[in-house]
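Two folds, back to back.
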Amino acid sequence: MDLLKGITKEYLNGLEWLNEPCDWGITEKGIYIVPPDNSDFFNDPRRLLNNDTAPYLYKRVKGDFTARVHVKPCFNKIFNAASIMVYINKNVWAKLCFEWCDAECSSVVNVVTREISDDATGPSINAQDVWLQIVRKDNIYAMHWSLDGNKWLLARNFVLDDTDEVLVGIEGQCPVGNSAKNEYLYLSIDPTVPQDIRKGI
């Protein structure tokens, strides 16, 4: 079920905001988010800055799940991204981003944070929109991406704290300024999971 279908500013269809942006709204296919300048979720490995200010629209989820989002970011500045994210607390979370990376190309970037953020940049992707997925089975998670929403490629397999309830949803970021409109075309969170979470289907 697409959780963005039928959503309004007054009716969030079971979703909640953390850092609700001033500028967000409804589109023909979903919603858009304009993240504020300098907004992000990132705990700097150099311990110079922890930033947890990016808009995050989430659902509280217990147990195993498969979450999918179809994103179309605006790549007008380095590190601008639209993401799918699982959040336990400000020091334990993970996100998979379609991002304009510092190699000056669009790429799927994953970030896993356990006190400190560990990020990794994937291959360059020549596309305007991408599907992103996070699967949870017990306390094991897998991140995948897809160009068509059918064939999924593994981005990362990892473990987070074993807690029953987590927050799952969409994030928009603009870490270095020059904010832009990111589009979110689909969001589903399903209690069923793939038999092999590394394959993602």
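---
second:
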Amino acid sequence: MSQAPYDPRAVANKLLDMAALVMEKQATITPLALQKLLYFVHARYLATTGKPAVKGAFEAWQYGPVHPTVYKAFSDFGKSPITSRAKAQNLLTGEERELAAPEDWQLNRAIMSVLLNVGHLPAGRLVDLSHAENGPWHFIWEKVRKGEAVTRQIPDKVTQERGNRMFMIAPHEQSDSLDGEEVPPQY
């Protein structure tokens, strides 16, 4: 049994699989929605365990937090619902293999909590939640905008300290965000 942090693609796959079991609209999870849900799971797991849920770092992109590894794994879907799962690829042979699902009750609890609380929301609303003023994404986005940061990475410490701000916005408020497609930032 592996321990956190986990491969972000494996956690994304697990989130999609659990969504298929508990949500009527699971078939409508787009890459944009997946990125926000995954970040919320990461924030919840970090808040409850003190450990990051996924390896690597989320970055502050235009539509909120994005994990580049997950972006690459699901970007072919564009704005369309995700219909398959991420796989690992052997760099020497090119052979693909299934990613082992993390077996971690605390991760399962974090995923279920996020799905039950905000999983039903449209992608634009999830973007709004991730953009909460003084939340992790907003904090880093503003630092980059002002030239006070050289990277768009959202440190886990920032997520831990500011993650609760993302959920201070009422989930039923109307969204001004579009259901856009993530696009890597231009450096």
